[in-house]
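Below is how a single chain appears once it has passed through the pipeline. First comes the sequence as given, then the structure the pipeline wrote out for it. We keep one example in the README because the format questions we get most often are answered faster by looking than by reading.
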Amino acid sequence: MFHSPARLAAALFLATAGAFAAEPPRPAAESPVMRGFPPPPEHRVTKANGFTPQNMRWSLTHGRELAPSRAIARADKPMPLIRGKALPIDRLAFPVGEGEATLQDYLEATATDGFIVLHKGRVVYERSFAGVSARQPHTWASMVKSVTGLLAAQFVAEGKLDPQARLAQYVPELAGTPFGEATVQQNLDMEVSVVYPEGVPPDLGLFAAAGLIPRREGMPEDIYAFLKAAQIPKDAPAARRFFYQNGSAEAVAWALRKIANQSWAELVSQRVWSRFAADDAYVTVDILGTEMSSGGLNVHLEDTARFAELVRREFARKDRGDSFTQAVRTIFRPHDNQALFAAGNLAAGRAGYSYRDYWYQPNDGMGSIEAFGRFGQRIYINPARQLVVVKLSSTPDLAPRSTSAAGPGRAYDRAMESPATFSAMVAALLKTLPR
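Resulting structure:
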């Protein structure tokens, strides 16, 4: 019997995803995964083996073939991606742990599927790897939370959502739960005192509820049930505390649905995607049709770049704009929770960071913000230098997630995968940009 939440989470993952290997998955061009008519049994991807290293790239780029999904409609007039003068940065060098790597080394070592850089609104560098095209939908993982945060900030700007109200005011079903008893803003800033049952960790419990992996006995059958399984700790501190987990974003999305009487997908389509997207995206849904709004969105590389560039441009607007513009300005506004973040479970590799509305704030003196997702998904937006960087990846990640704030924080087995390395790459890139 497993008594440690961390050991239990690892065991659950191994039971559903198979053995873990440290090496990144082989390039799709060399991979026999899902090849043939039909594919041979040993090369078939299922919910039980989709997160193994050899299958991860296929799973993260074919999500709707593994689980039900709902479309996110593209824009009638997509944002053009204008090509600028290419930057010769393959050999760009930066520190990695005690050593050094080039951009090419870094992208290959972290199983990158697509990487794109925009400067002053123009594409100056773009690479696709392993047969994954720039227009192949790719899982965003937890970067999806940043979209939910933008939606919530819009509702606040419109007076439809009070950030200081208990979330249960909007979702009575969550009364008595950690999410319902916390304020809307506490949920948005990951400052909720919550304990997940050992059999329902905040990552795998949600993956099972959303239908991404097989559901073990005792796991919630849907996303709403997953939220109700969370518990308020008996010794819940009165002071604020940072604990990154999936439930808060799913709870906020539930409130948005109820307020608008629309699905999360409809809200994203109408309020965000209609402003920029060249192609439809899609989001994983559970057996009730509930979107996984903390990690189920799938978007291709170029539309991910359009999304990030849209956010950068909205922040740069001189006029008041609409509620979306105001929401963007909110997520860039510096937050005062640096000390909380430093004591939380995501501090490793993020010295000096704070966190607001499901966006990371590096506090780098340039007003930058970031979105991060499991398996190596990254968005970086620097308004001062007019820079956007996007990285979509299939980096294996078995690290168990803590079931409470008292558990261990996120650690990295390889320095190459640490957020500090991504930051070092960006810092080196900034030095090469023309003024």
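The chain has 14 helices and 14 strands.

See the next section for the split statistics.
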